[in-house]
Structures are given as structure tokens and as C-alpha cells.
Please model this.
Amino acid sequence: MIRALGVVLAALTLLIASPAAGLTVRDMLGRDVTLPLPPQRIVSLVPSVSEIIFALGAQDRLVGRTDFCDYPAAVLGKPSVGGMVNPNLETLVTLRPDLVFATDEGNREDTVQQLRRLRIPVYLVHANRIAETVDLIARVGALTGREADVSRVTGDMQRRIEAVRRAVAPFPRRRVLYVLWPDPLIVPGRESMLTELIEVAGGTSITATDGEAYPRFSLETAVARAPEVIILADHSTGASTAGRSAPEKWKRLTSVPAVQAGRLHSADLSILHRYGPRVPEGIETLARFIHPEAFP
Amino acid sequence: MSPAGRLAFVLGVMGVILVAVTALALFVGSAGLSPQAVARALAGRAGAESVESIVTLQLRLPRVVAAVLAGGALAVAGVAFQGLTRNPLAEPAVLGVSSGAAFGVVLAQIFGLELSFLQALGVATFAFAGALMAAAAVYLIAVVPGGLSIQTLLLAGVIVGIFFTSAITVLISVMDYNRLGGVIYWLLGNLAPIPASSLALFAVLALGGCWLILRSARELNLLALGEEAAVQLGVDAVRLKRRVFAAAALLTGSVVAFTGPIGFVGLVVPHMLRGILGQDNRLLVPTALVGGGIFLLAADTLARNIVAPAELSVGVITSFCGAPFFVYLLRTRYRVSL
Model:
């Protein structure tokens, strides 16, 4: 009798959970996506989205990630489908996702089209501003049925960002050169969120009006714009030194105000390149580099 | 055995190998499907939404077809260029034609074209235009009164190739960091499940190009005797060269448009076949079509599985297999003739 009841209950659950009731939503690139609500099996091809899913407590629905999704540590327990540029479609399909998160910055449009042809709903995200990051968190919350957690996460973020704004407000803005990659020199441009983060942290990016998101830049121009703070992003991982900015090289540029004032910083700033719940952490680090006097 | 009998025999053997490699390609992969599951999907007895059906019919099968078409087209383009230049080193990549096509595709990618049908037509047009431009440049540099200088032709190919590679580098330099990964990935040469409509377009272009070259095979044989001799035997050498150049550019352009630049196929396959069949282009063109397909399909199956669940680019595999094999050929078979 109890077993029979169990079978009936299981059948009922299946019926309720069946994705018959599709919902059409508009993603962040304005494309319509029809998906089961709430999706039960999510694959995230975007490291920031994987972080957001965990921050919202929706990790039970995450069934796949990329090799680049490395935070929080628990995400490493989920199966990976490969890189962001070349995820393995076979592996992805065997995870039976009912929703895939992808981005137009880092994934290939080809991948998105291939998934659509397999009738796997793809939700494209795009966040270049703090406000868009907050919007993205709200969207992921709504899609995963964790609306209640959104304000907890974003409220905390906004409080911390506000605190930094207040702390640096009394000080004059400093000109900042952010070096995303040393050789060739790649910097955050007009459309990069880093430009806004530097602004919030009490600086002005000297490359704020250049290029698209991450243009290549001439060292000569960078020196001519006399940065007062230079921040070198350190991408080296373990034994690999590729992407490590050599501060010595920059110290030779003694005419640059930043070098004279000793405001040349090198740090692992991968959090600054993600649009997720750790944005305030990145802003706090930046602010300490730009205005150490504001944080005694 | 008569040439026709030999062709039938070799094609028969190669057909069997192609079927075997195709079966292997369909049955192995990172999804780890059981052979029964794959067979079920192939027989149409699996649900359309089932994993085995999606993986077998929508991921592996279109990729197998793309690999066979691309490999065949590249090998035939190799035969054509070698016949045309009377030089065993000639190949789409060596003559700069691949680079021209690749430049066209990177340009198309900057304009945001992808691989849906209409856009694929656009990308293929860009690739063909690039290939044709490169081929025409090589031809015009090498043409001298009364013929085509073979040495100059190869040098012109190298120069034109370097020029278009630099042009691609210029495009990459001004491109945003975010899009770089995708373009570099494409430049390595990768096969992917292509949508059916685009696959049909690819097939039409590739088979059309092969047909044009097959039609010229007899005249290419005569050209091997030397241009003067060919003209005396009634070959319109100038027209033949233009036609074969255009057809080989079409083959190269279509492959580059749909898979990215893949090297060495046009070198390895024709040379292997010459070892078996001799120099007759009428035998080489049809067998290169099948042989190139086998070679690239085997390479792609390796690329999919050797580091699974990650994937290697098939261009890397063809170069890794092709380069040592070519050195071997040079050191043994062609030692005397070169």
C-alpha cells in the first residue's frame, strides 16, 4: 500500500516537474528563450554565472560547468564540459541540460547556435556595468526560483560598494593605468566593467575612452597620460609565468608619477574580471591601491 | 590490370576502409554511448529527444559528413595544384590559397557572419573571394610570356601566403581581446556539427569543384609532358590553368569557410595514392576524394577522443601526422626525382 502510494506520488512529481509548461523569457541580448520554469538541470558556460548560482544557493540545479569555473571551491565537484571557447558538445548533451548559460564575451556564437539546433535553451548574459551585474543576479535568481535570496546577495554588495565610495570621496581622483595583460599591452576600454570599478574606487582609468572592451594599447600613450597609479593584473598560475607583469620593467619608467610615488601594484585580480558577487571585494582591493590613505 | 579495373579495385578497397572508419567515428566519443545505443539511434528506434539520438544523429553524423567532404576536397585540390604546377610540393597552403581564404573568413567573422545557411553562403563567398584573390595573385606574379614559371609560382605562393597571414594578423591586432579566443580557435582548423542546409551547400561546392577538376584530368596528364608538348597535343593550356586554378580555389575556399584552414591533407593523400596508382590524374582525382575523406575523418576521430572530454583541433592532428609522413616520403620515394 505504502509502495503503491510512493509510485503514485513519484508519478505525480514527474507530472508536475515535466517541462510541458514552457515559459518564454528575454535574455540579456534581447533574444527570446523558451525554457522550463524553473529549469532543473543547468549548465553554466560562464564562470561569473556559476559563482552567482552558488551565491544564491541554487547549486543543486547546476549540473555542468567549464574548466574556468573555479569559484567557490565546491563548483569543482560539478562535471566540466571543457573550455569556454571549445566546450565538448557530446559531454554537454549527456548532462541533459534544460538550460545553458552562455555569454557573448568568451563563448563562441557558433556554440550558441549549435546548442539551439539541438533544442537546448541558451540564455545569453552580458554584464559590463555594476548595475548589469545586479540585474544579472536578479535574473538568475528568478530563473532558478531563488528570488528570495537575490536581495540578500545584491543588498550586501551594494552596502560594501557604498562604503568604498564614502571612504574615497574626500580624496581627489587619481589617474589609473590598469594593465590587464603586459605583452602585448591590453587595457580595459570604454566597455569594460573595470573602467567603472576604478571610478567607484576613487580613480579615473586613463584608458576609459579607448577601444571596445579590452583593446590593445600603446605603451607610449600610456606613459604620456601620466598615470598616478599602475595596477598590474597577475594571471600566472602555479608554475606558469605567462601573463605575469614584471614590475621591474615598469619601475624603469621613472618619469611616470605612479612610479615616482611608489604606487605600482601587482596582484592576482581575477575577481575583477568577473561580474558576480565578488565585485565589491575587487573594488575594495582597487580602492586600497588607489587611495591607501583612505584605509588607515 | 587495365586503368579502369585498377581504379575500380582501389576505389572498392577504399570504400570498405571509409565505411569502417565511419563506423568507428559514429560509435566512439566522449559521451560514452554503448554500441547498442548508437545502433538504436542509427536505426531510428531511439526517441528523437534521447541522448543517443542527439549525440549520434545530430552531433557525430554531420561531423562525419563534414570531415569526409573537407578531406576529399583538400586532397583533390592538392592533386589539382600539383598537376598544374608539375611540382609535388604544391598544395593549397603552400600556394597561399588557404591563407587568402582564411583572410576572407576572418573578415566575414568581423562582420559577424556565422554558419546558418544564408550566413554560411556569405562566409563561403568571402572565403572563395579570398582564395581566388590569392590564386590570381600567385598566377599573375608567376606568369611570363609564353607560360608559367614553376619556380616563380611556388615562390609567389609562399609570398602571397605570408602576405595574407600578415593581413590576418592585422585584423587580429585590432580585434577586441574578448573575440580573440574564438578567432584563434577557428584558425587552428576544427570540424563541428554543421547544420544540414549548410552541409548541403558545402557538398555542392566541394563536389562541384571536384567535378571541374575531374573533367580536366586528362588535359592535366598531358600538361605533365610539358607545356609545349601539351599545346601541340591540342590542350588550351592557358584556359586549362585558369579553370583548374579557379576550381582548386573553390575547393580550398569552401573547406576553409566550413572548417578553418587544415593543412597537409592535400600533400599527404595525393602522394600516398601516387605510390599506388602512378601519375594518372584520371585515377588520382576520384581516389583522392575518397582517400582525403578517410584521412581527415580518421584524424578528426582521433582529435575527438585522444584527450576526451577535451578536444584537439583536427588541424593539429593532420599536421602532426602529415609532417613526419611527408619527411618520410621525401627521404625515400622522392629522393631521386627531387
About this structure: The radius of gyration of chain B is 20 Å.
